[in-house]
Amino acid sequence: MPKPTILVTGGAGYIGSHTTLELLLAGFTVVIVDNLCNSSVAVVRRLRELAGPEAPELHFIQADILDRSALDKAFAAHQPHAVIHFAGLKAVGESTRDPLTYYDVNVGGSIQLIRAMQKAGCHRLVFSSSASVYGSTPKIQPIPEHLAPSPSIASPYGKTKAHVEDLLQDWVASDAQVGVTLLRYFNPIGAHPSGQIGEDPKGTPNNLMPYLAQVATQTRPYLPVFGDSYATSDGTCIRDYLHVVDLALGHLAALRDLQLGVCEAYNLGTGCGTSVLELIHLMSETVGRELPYRILPMRPGDVKELRADPSKAQAKLGWVAHRTVKEMCEDTWKWRTLNPHGYETTGNAHEH
Ligand SMILES: NC(=O)c1ccc[n+]([C@@H]2O[C@H](COP(=O)([O-])OP(=O)(O)OC[C@H]3O[C@@H](n4cnc5c(N)ncnc54)[C@H](O)[C@@H]3O)[C@@H](O)[C@H]2O)c1
Ligand SMILES: *[C@@H]1O[C@H](CO)[C@@H](O)[C@H](O)[C@H]1NC(C)=O
């Protein structure tokens, strides 16, 4: 029997594209709904190539999740069995300057999506949440799921994730026929090992790994490191990095397990911490030269350490992030060297 269709909002983006590929490889038909505000249509052709001629169909609909009629049309045309909801805005700094746009897209867009699901009778949703719902002073490390939500969430971005979690919980409480899984990602980095899809930030990268990758390609002279006097082994901040392919596979595990009438949250991380200096060192080793960095003052709001307790996902979903930080560095480097200018490299700006 053919596997059902999955509708993936934000499927052209970094995590969405890796998840779409794993869905196709596992035999699911996929419908991407993405307005391309932070991604390239070139992704779609690469996904079809990587999935191969035997893979189920991949449909692409360029639409905004705020556009209810476009969503209704997509649901009517494809009758998806479940939705994985990645679409949203995620630049923390920008969310502080323009909170209304973040609430509009992340919260308002989720509401439109849920309404479209209700209308179409689609009952299953997997939502991209974030470790940021744990706030800036998590009391326990590694962090278990029951710690959230936190009143100390530092950014409007993080708050939009907590609000959507709340509204999804209320939605499930109101209707025993729907089921939702909240996936709280820690720090996804890396790229598909083929080097054909990866993270392609426009402008100055907001996150450590994409910035470091641009230092490696000499697009940027050095990596700014914000603070080296935290109470950690080498004084720099510690994060729980996980390979984006492991993260993608976490979504397949969540879909497989999804039960109606419940809203469950899972951390997706490795449980291991890596400091900024350790990551620079591993990336330097991968690239074969010392990558320059400069220590700058600490940034207010930065958390010393963020590490997942991933035991719930392991016990209930049978999911474990296996790939090492070295593999994350190697796959990032392969993606960067094959695509020094991201998706624009191939000159396919006009493809459809
Ligand atoms: N990357 C991370 O470190 C991280 C961590 C935790 C949570 N998340 C969440 O995971 C999800 C995916 O993140 P990503 O890193 O792949 O980001 P991304 O920006 O690469 O992907 C988001 C995609 O959504 C699309 N999109 C944005 N607004 C839209 C709209 N109004 N209508 C339709 N499409 C829209 C963008 O074009 C993009 O393709 C986001 O919800 C993000 O908040 C990411
Ligand atoms: C766009 O994607 C890049 C790369 O993942 C990310 O750094 C940036 O925050 C995203 N922008 C928005 C507005 O979400």
Automatic annotation (TrEMBL):
What are the NAD(P)-binding domain coordinates in residue numbering? 7-332
The cofactor required is: NAD(+)
Question: A Pfam family name for this chain?
Answer: GDP_Man_Dehyd
Family, according to the entry, reads as follows:
In the C-terminal section; belongs to the aldose epimerase family. Belongs to the NAD(P)-dependent epimerase/dehydratase family.
Gene Ontology BP terms? galactose metabolic process
Q: Which UniProt keywords apply?
A: Carbohydrate metabolism, Isomerase, NAD
Q: Which organism is it from?
A: Piptocephalis cylindrospora
Task: Give the GO cellular component terms, alphabetically.
Answer: cytosol
Q: In which pathway does it act?
A: Carbohydrate metabolism; galactose metabolism; Carbohydrate metabolism; hexose metabolism
Assembly and binders: Homodimer.
Q: Which reaction does it catalyse?
A: UDP-alpha-D-glucose = UDP-alpha-D-galactose
Its EC number(s) = 5.1.3.2
One example GO MF annotation: UDP-glucose 4-epimerase activity
What does this chain do? Mutarotase converts alpha-aldose to the beta-anomer. It is active on D-glucose, L-arabinose, D-xylose, D-galactose, maltose and lactose.
- Stated name of the protein: UDP-glucose 4-epimerase
Source domain of life:
Eukaryota
